[in-house]
Design brief:
Oligomer: single chain
Number of strands: 6
Helix content: 40-55%
Distance between the termini: 130 Å
Mean pLDDT: 75
Structural class: alpha+beta
Number of helices: 5
Low-confidence stretches: 4-16, 192-196
Shape: elongated
Largest sheet: 6 strands, antiparallel
Length: 196
């Protein structure tokens, strides 16, 4: 009888230990999944932080830079110090708050062109297979701006995030115009000196 009792106790004990071990292994597997997910999220956060650092550094070059996130429908506006998130709704209005401000500065003959260019509902189609699209627009007075959409994700992958920049290129255009005038004048002198 003692042997039977002992054997039964041993079987029950093995069953409990086995069940506890199974629960332990299940918990360990779940814990490992949580750790792996945490590492993955940390790596993604690190990658996002690096991208935000790049965008912040770009804000020193461009007058305006926005990160357009089409998954969350948020435009993050960057400047040198901080960022500001502004939601957008493609179904209600295909233009960001920034472009609603900028369109007021665009010269009348370029407003429709600017409005078409900044239409977010057509942007994915226009950028298909492209990393960057850009256009220049005349502003009121003698100013000119260049607008660029720069795809952050792979151009062949899902359309998710795009950097949108605005840059006043008036001085750049004046420098180019001056260089062209100098070149024409220099070319004229070279032609004259060859005839002599």
């Amino acid at each position: 009888m003692a042997n039977g009792y002992f054997l039964g106790f041993f079987i029950v004990h093995i069953f409990v230990v086995a069940k506890d071990r199974e629960a332990y292994l299940k918990q360990e597997t779940q814990l490992q999944k949580i750790i792996d997910l945490n590492i993955e999220l940390s790596n993604k956060q690190h990658e996002n932080d690096k991208q935000f650092d790049v965008l912040r550094s770009m804000s020193r070059v461009y007058d305006t830079i926005n990160l357009l996130d089409f998954d969350s429908c948020v435009a993050s506006r960057f400047d040198i110090k901080d960022s500001k998130e502004i939601p957008f709704d493609l179904e209600k209005d295909p233009h960001t708050a920034v472009n609603k401000e900028v369109v007021e500065k665009i010269a009348g003959e370029d407003r429709d062109k600017f409005w078409d260019y900044t239409n977010l509902s057509t942007l994915e189609k226009r950028m298909k297979g492209k990393r960057v699209i850009s256009a220049e627009f005349k502003c009121l007075g003698d100013e000119r701006i260049r607008s660029m959409y720069i795809r952050i994700d792979d151009e062949d992958g899902p359309f998710k995030r795009v950097a949108y920049t605005l840059q006043n290129v008036t001085n750049e255009r004046k420098r180019i115009s001056t260089c062209m005038k100098i070149r024409r004048l220099t070319a004229g002198r070279v032609e004259l000196s060859e005839e002599d």
